[in-house]
Specification:
The protein has about 100 residues and is of the alpha+beta class. Helices cover about 15% and strands about 15% of the residues. It contains two helices and five strands; from the N terminus they run ββαβββα. β4 and β5 form a beta hairpin.
């Protein structure tokens, strides 16, 4: 099955798209973490995302990329902050977070 109607791409396949995105991201000063799975999410002074590996990511904002359809996670603040920090489309809403530390 092809991925269609993606910005500037008529049609592609998932593995090819991901490889191209990764090559693009490598042009920037960012860390790429592969094979990590979130074990939860908590909110305090920072949003904390513990990983199954035992590491913990901390950020002021988090982009939840939940798949092909927008899915509500039903976490506190999700509805109130929709469009004000809670985003569902990383390639559409990502530019809103330019220059800021984020996790996807």
């Amino acid at each position: 099955l092809a991925i269609e109607n993606f910005i500037s791409v008529k049609a592609t396949e998932g593995p090819k798209l991901v490889a191209q995105l990764e090559e693009h991201v490598k042009e920037y000063d960012v860390d790429i973490m592969k094979g990590q799975r979130a074990a939860g999410i908590t909110r305090g002074d920072y949003i904390e995302v513990p990983l199954e590996s035992g590491a913990t990511l901390k950020a002021k904002s988090v982009i939840m990329a939940t798949g092909a359809r927008w899915r509500n996670m039903n976490v506190p603040g999700e509805q109130e902050y929709k469009g004000k920090g809670v985003a569902y489309c990383p390639h559409c809403d990502g530019p809103l977070f330019k220059g800021k530390p984020v996790a996807v």
